[in-house]
Amino acid sequence: MGSSGSIIDLFAWGGDGWTRPLLTGLGVTMACACIGYVLGVVLGLAVAFAKLGHNRWLGAAATLYTTLLRGVPPLLVIFLLFFGTNGALMWVARGFGYTGYIEVDAFTVGVMAVAFVSAAYSSEVFRGAHAAIPVGQFEAYTALGLRPFAGLWTVIIPQMFRLALPGLGNVWIMAIKETTLLSVISLAELMRVVGVAGRTTGQPFVFYGVAALVYLVLVAISSRAFHALETRMRWA
Amino acid sequence: MQKAVKNLLSVLVLAAILCGPAVAQDQAEVRIGTDGGYLPWTSTSPSGELTGFEIDLAKQVCDRMKRSCRFTAQPWEGQIPALEQGKYDILVGGIAITPERQKRLAFTQSYANLPINFAAAKTSSLNGKANWQELKAALSGKTIGVQSGTQSQKFVDNELKGDVTVRLYDNQDSLNLDLLAGRVDAAVAGRSPWIALTRTQQGEPIEILSPNIDFEQFNYLGVGVGGLMRKDEEDLRKAWDTALCELKASGELKGISEKWFGFDVSTKPDAKVCGA
Amino acid sequence: MDLETALHVATELAGAIWVTLALAAVTLPLGLILAGLATWARRSRYRALRGVASAYVLAFRSIPLLVQIFVLYYGLSQFAWLRASPVWIVLKDPFACAVIAMSVCAGAYTAEVMRGGLAAVPQGAIEAARALGLSGFKTFLLVTMPIAIRRALPAYSNEIVVTLKSTSLACTITVMELTGVAKDLMSQTFAVIEVFCMVALIYLIINMVLIFLLQQVERWLTPAYQRKPMFAGLRRAAAKRLSSEAVSQKG
């Protein structure tokens, strides 16, 4: 737990240096954000259509879902999933006659938390995108003789993605930021590794500073990438 | 577009496989849950390997029981539910034996007993109190840090509630940082983290306060530290206890204790378990 | 959940509501002041000032709030010279640290909201005011600002919800607000769902009250001829129901 040593020693590659653990942490962060985000966007699309559809109960459930997930702190959602998922899953499994132990680890909880929150926000983005599609497009696929589902899948949803791109970019950045909260349930993502490194070396400022820079760069790259994607989509 | 959809679907399937709940492994292995962040009891090295007093002890016990053991580190808060639900067969990690826990779960015999101690800056006026009453009087109005969910928190709740401002921490390391920074006037924990802290260069300005808060005076704190298991695991408990009896009798437990704590924390063989 | 546990949970949460409200009540005005300063600086004549303000907004919107809180709370406490300085009186206190970090972050986000509001002010309105002989300051005070505020309010109400939610992060530095207490209750009582529902309901109610208050401000800032009747949606629904009933009675 020595606090001496230069910055170079702190960030040495092998031995007691922290670069390797930090990179591993970054890997966990990215894996969790990516998987959670993709699942969230798909779920968000489903929630958006539940709201747009004609089934009143489905619509009400979708509205309740987005109101809840957008109105409570993500940290509270994480605690719910962390303390609640195991019990809930086992309860369901008992119903099917399975009595063994089912484990949900911190990574899975993290992915679920990112997915559920991203879904709530992206569903709103999709709903906006759906509203922005000209009525003519709906009439056009009907005129072409496409069934509603096929029309939705080939005509409407691709256009929705294009229109939703800026909003989806924001949801992605939110997903990256949300992963930092997973350090509280001891998922060994970047924030957790940085915390451990800071505490054991007695240099928390240096390590949290590094984390700040890394997230700054991640967000900068992400928004550039989404801008580039938007430009390409516009011309396509 | 078709291809993009296919790609998307395959990513989803992959994600579903990756995220799928892991199902517990076979029973032959003894699955040991531990804290992994509570020196010198257990600790995790930068490479992710578990070390510490209880890791060494549990390895010795496993050798004597002739069973293979697998260690998993998990934060203390989730450990008891995970044990009850069958993720682990036994928990070791400085867990105090208390009547409350004994209602629902079973303990091995105790293998270590350490008092609770307050720690504060060497320059603090809290130093050098002869007994608990004096220290308690001196603590009045101060800000005290303690790790949540520990025996120390229970002690603070029972003995000091209302007299002091209590700050709760998720882990001992954060508590150490705030004690060093002076955000709390004093901090409470089992004696061992204070020994670990005061040995480091950073912990130089910190002193362990007298008196020791011992388990005999405040008997709700328990009779020491033991391995925690489900009540239905009677066979494992007997095997573990027998191995502990042997390790205590041979002096090996004392050796491991001195290696990690620098002094003997081990308890005497439990007459009810090991015989006279 | 038995009655005793429910009572325990309720009393614990009741105490924590005030901590959450206090955090939000101090953070929101401070954030607004910082955002005002940043907006002013971003419109300044001096390039350096504009650069600093833009960098502030960009950085604090990009770095996750938890990182900002930890840099301030655990990071800065590493330096002995800082602990010896008068600044420490403030930084020593976890509540103050949480408020500072959240205000600085909220300031950056709110500055973006303000920029959006200002961009939505029609150029014609400003030109008209100048043509009427109003000074630059008076134009800003009497024309630009009221329009900008009105345009920015919907986005700002969103920002308020974000800030309220971000107060939950204070529990990571020992401030026991709603989410922190909820976590303790979940791990103690194992009544996970019940605790979650109660806390979620509290957050949603606070959100609703804040948004309603802001809508009143928006209404008050809107000229009378542009105002929509309060509860427009409800009234329309009632009218529709009445007319449909009338139709069914006829048939």
Count of strand segments of chain C: 0
The secondary structure category of chain C is: mainly alpha
* N→C terminal distance of chain C: 52 Å
Largest sheet of chain C: none
Low-confidence residue ranges of chain C = 246-251
* Continuous helix count of chain C: 11
How many distinct beta strands of chain A? 1
Low-confidence stretches of chain A: none
Radius of gyration of chain A: 22 Å
Q: Please, could you describe this protein's structure?
A:
The complex is a heterotrimer of chains A (236), B (276) and C (251). By secondary structure, chain A is mainly α. Helix content of chain A is 80%, strand content 1%. Chain A has 9 helices and 1 strand, in the order H-H-H-H-E-H-H-H-H-H. The relative contact order of chain A is 0.14. The model of chain A has no long low-confidence stretch (mean pLDDT 89). Chain B is 41% helix and 18% strand. Chain B is built from 11 helices and 14 strands. In chain B, helix 6 links the parallel strand 10 and strand 11. In chain B, helix 2 packs across helix 9. About 4% of the residues of chain B have low confidence. In chain C, 36% of the residues are buried. Chain C contains 11 helices and no strands. The longest helix of chain C has 40 residues. Helix content of chain C is 81%, strand content 0%. The N and C termini of chain C lie far apart (52 Å). Chains in contact: A-B, A-C, B-C. Chains A and C meet through helix 3, helix 4, helix 7, helix 8 and helix 9 of A and helix 3, helix 8, helix 9 and helix 10 of C. Strand 1 of chain A pairs antiparallel with strand 1 of chain B.
Summarize the structure in short.
Chain B is of the alpha/beta class.
